[in-house]
Amino acid sequence: MKINKIVCIGAGYVGGPTMAVIADRCPHVDVTVIDMNEVRIAAWNSSSLPVYEPGLAEVVQRARGRNLKFLNHIDGVQALKEADAIFISVNTPTKTHGPGAGKASDLSYVESCARFIAQHVSGQKIVIEKSTMPVRTAELIKEILTHNNSQAKFDILSNPEFLAEGTAIRDLEKPERVLIGGENSEAVQALVDIYAQWVDPRLIITTGLWSAELSKLAANAFLAQRVSSINSMSAVCEKTGANIDEVAKVIGTDSRVGPKFLKASVGFGGSCFKKDVLSLIYICESYALPEVAHYWQQVIEINEWQKKRFAQKIIESVPPHGTVAILGLAFKKETNDFRESASIDIVQHLLQAGLKVISYDPKVNFTEFAKGLQKAENLKSASSIAVAINGVHAVAILTEWPEFASINWQEFAPQLKNCNLIYDGRNIVPVDAPLPPKLNFQRIGVSG
Ligand SMILES: NC(=O)c1ccc[n+]([C@@H]2O[C@H](COP(=O)([O-])OP(=O)(O)OC[C@H]3O[C@@H](n4cnc5c(N)ncnc54)[C@H](O)[C@@H]3O)[C@@H](O)[C@H]2O)c1
After folding, report:
1. DSSP string computed for 157-217
2. What is the rounded CA–CA span in Å between residue 308 and residue 388?
3. For residue 389, is pLDDT > 90?
4. 3-state percent helix, strand, coil for the chain, nearest multiple of 5
5. pLDDT digit string, tens, across residues 207-222
6. At the fourth CATH level, which superfamily is domain 5-207?
7. Residue 277: what pLDDT?
8. Residue 437: is its pLDDT beyond 90?
9. Cβ–ligand 1 contact at 108 (below 6 Å)
10. 347 C-alpha vs ligand 1 centroid, how far in Å?
11. Is the CB of 11 under 6 A from ligand 1?
């Protein structure tokens, strides 16, 4: 088995960058990315890509028009028919209604991909789960494929993606590992051969299907758990006079623990952590493992609590109907993605408390961000840090954009004359940064 032609369904934060890197590193493989969202496809074909990631534009520029195409899913049918391998890279959000609502993954997009594939293809096809899926989803996909198409032969592989937004291109070009789960060793090898074009084969881990599916959920749950663990300690630090940055340094220098993901913050965000932990909780409940479900539920609870207590401190520090500047809406630096960003909940808490909010973020589309918020009439956008903080009663840093770490606060003393509090929700302002007099400065996990 050899993969010469690839189709990827889903041109989002994962499908777009992943396929761009595959096309870039495998110039002899035809890669077509299809999506039902025509606006997104048009953006992938323009100079203004729908995803901001450092290095992405250069990779797309090299491969697009050579062996990389972006098509709407109707125009993509011919490519689908000809493909040897079809990646499913669509969204798998938390279900909002029906059984499992609020926890289980909504697999309707995955199911519709399976029906779409079954409707159009014949011959031998490798169907690859790139989306994060609950363990045993491959069974469901295979059932839909074979029920709706008795002519084609399907091999299902699980190849979950470990890229992190903000460093997606680096993660794809130099992954720590690539995971491929499957039953048919020839199909597994065909996909290994693709990655082996640029990834050291020792970093390509092959497993059974269920281990691959579960490993992705488990990996995200462990990462989220680290954030909640350090954030829970940040609250203890604030009460006791210990300093979370010092405590994290000590914990992280133990080689059994390691230093990464030990930065106290306003809480984790992003489209994956919460939904994947919830999905794991639902799986545990479905398999009658309530103790395990309860354990992981706490990771979510601490995260929600961290956001709420951060907002509460701001609310208590400003006059009624006062104004708060929010620096950063993205869920992390170097991305325009604000899905599940801590800023959403914090801004909402502030607005509900009757405060006015003025926000600045260098990459996030403010109109999109404000959609769905209540009392959004009290939320405004600023074109710069200087405009955002002018005359406000408090400033909160919610994203670790480098430009927020290097603000010269003293220079902004006139704009900050009404300001009671600067709350660094990412602990990025240097501890020795000079501040205007009488200004209260607070870091996560540091009493004061
Ligand atoms: N974003 C991340 O950092 C990240 C990292 C690793 C894994 N994942 C997982 O990857 C998957 C995709 O995530 P994402 O962030 O790229 O999502 P996304 O919402 O950015 O992109 C999904 C795309 O799929 C398209 N789509 C949905 N159903 C379709 C259909 N039937 N036919 C054609 N197109 C369809 C949507 O229009 C959308 O453009 C999810 O399961 C997610 O959990 C995400």
Report:
1. EE------TTSHHHHHHS-S-EEEEES-HHHHHHHHHHHTTTS-GGGEEEE-HHHHHHHHH
2. 22
3. yes
4. 45, 15, 40
5. 999 999 999 999 999 9
6. NAD(P)-binding Rossmann-like Domain (3.40.50.720)
7. 98
8. no
9. no
10. 26
11. yes
